[in-house]
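During the no-cost extension, the postdoctoral fellow (Dr. R.K.) reprocessed legacy sequence entries with the updated structure-token encoder. One reprocessed record is reproduced below for audit purposes.
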Amino acid sequence: MSDRLAAILAEAVPRVCPAAVSLIAVDGSVVAAAAAGELVRYADARGGLAAERPPACRDSIFDLASVSKLFTTVVLLSLAEEGLLDLDEPVAARLPGTDPRITPRRLLTHTAGLPPTRRVDLELPGADAGARMAAMVRTPITHPVGGPYLYSDVGMVMAGRVAELAGGAALDALVRARVTDVLGLPDTGYRPDGRRARIAATEWKPERPGPGCVRGEVHDETAYALGGVAGHAGLFATAGDLLAFGEALRLGGGPLLRPESVAEMTRDQGAEGAPFRHGLGVRIGDPAAVGPLAGAYGHSGFTGTSLVVDPARRLTVVLLTNAVHPVRGRDGIRELRHAVAAHAAGLAR
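Re-encoded structure tokens follow.
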């Protein structure tokens, strides 16, 4: 069963991505697993080959990019379960000066009216992470509050900061205490110091310390400017760890959340104008990622990652790639996601 999945990845490597790892589970059991390519293939943006090109393996670690948003969401929902925040309270109670119409629910559904991004690294080149975070959460709204949908990393950064204030700890500590330690995910976390040899390289960024392409630090510029930990990006993980996280959600939250919290997370929240239905932090039926799994939910990441959960088919599908290595803008990642999802659909019959 893994032969077909291996062939799908092999067809994409290195044209779409230099490295790829995928796991497909039905009823919690892995029914297909494959790894292809090299964790570091290129030495620079011109495509010069690296002197050492370690192979991708099932336990390789990838930059999850926006899949990180799912972990931020789970943290917020767990805090809400404990009464430490309300999804419909004004975040201005914790972040003075913000628009009183902004709530955690609107942040998680991208209907808070905040802009898609803000490059505080360029705006405040000499500032530290704290000053940059203060600027991020003071970002003024630029669009109607309440909708239509406007995907906003700024909003998820704000959501992560709200979690910190409600939970009384830094976001990385909250994710560790409320998600990764609970599920026993040893290779999931921010700033994965000491595991560089297992990490897939991302983009060539001459402004970052070298040599070579980024490896072992977050690719996203804003998350990097915020110290590597942010609500919208920054997490690294193996396919196995991400599969376990997805399975916990598929099974109703397990030790992470109550079933009613997962039901609310995966319910269509009515965000108008999105090309998919939107839950709390999750996309439902996202055509860019789910392929034929129309009722599935999850999220994709800019680096070429995705987690897709289909409770009706008892499926969890993980695809980790480094499609931004050595430069962004490679074609074919959508087609690769669709091919993996289609294969998963066939295995679930």
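The chain has a mean pLDDT of 97. The chain is about 30% helix and 15% strand. The remaining legacy entries will be reprocessed before the final report is submitted.
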